[in-house]
């Protein structure tokens, strides 16, 4: 996790290539690294092999929808998630936040606003690093707990 937005790695999961390009460009122009996945399958492969500081997730994806993906990611990781969708009703925003999203942006959107929200979430996520950075792996009876990764080995 980046302590600030410089060089932060952002995963954009968006099935509309134009929106994906627009977001990636705005993110890259602001000193961050953007990777675009067009669906949940590509996203899963990227998450297996890479660590990302933040995920922007479209709700209406082909195959597995963004809400179920968000719920699944949240059960495994604390990576900040911004849901991006055309669904702008209050109930849609509430459901998105309740399944684990940290923020919710409706289409059409301002790329500058999305970048500002990314920076804000990265800043808030880095506050916890002060406390967790001092946590070391704990070892006992042949087991090892990594509190930062939430893993038992």
Automatic annotation (TrEMBL):
SMART domains: REC. GO terms for cellular component: cytosol; protein-DNA complex. Residues 9-122 form the Response regulatory domain. Transmembrane segments: none annotated. It comes from the Bacteria. Keywords: DNA-binding, Phosphoprotein, Transcription, Transcription regulation, Two-component regulatory system. It holds the Pfam family Response_reg. GO terms for biological process: regulation of DNA-templated transcription. The modification 4-aspartylphosphate is found at residue 58. SUPFAM superfamilies: CheY-like. One of its GO terms (molecular function) is transcription cis-regulatory region binding. This is DNA-binding response OmpR family regulator.
């Amino acid at each position: 996790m980046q302590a600030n937005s410089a060089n932060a790695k952002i995963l954009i999961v968006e099935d509309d290539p134009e929106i994906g390009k627009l977001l990636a460009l705005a993110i890259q122009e602001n000193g961050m690294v953007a990777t675009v996945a067009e669906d949940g399958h590509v996203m899963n492969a990227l998450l297996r092999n890479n660590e990302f500081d933040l995920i922007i997730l479209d709700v209406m994806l082909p195959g597995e929808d963004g809400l179920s993906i968000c719920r699944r990611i949240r059960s495994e990781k604390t990576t900040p998630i911004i849901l991006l969708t055309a669904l702008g009703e209050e109930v849609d925003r509430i459901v998105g936040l309740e399944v684990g999203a940290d923020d919710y942006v409706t289409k059409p959107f301002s790329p500058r606003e999305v970048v500002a929200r990314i920076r804000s979430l990265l800043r808030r996520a880095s506050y916890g690093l002060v406390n967790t950075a001092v946590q070391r792996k704990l070892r006992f009876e042949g087991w090892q707990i990594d509190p930062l990764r939430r893993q038992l080995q």
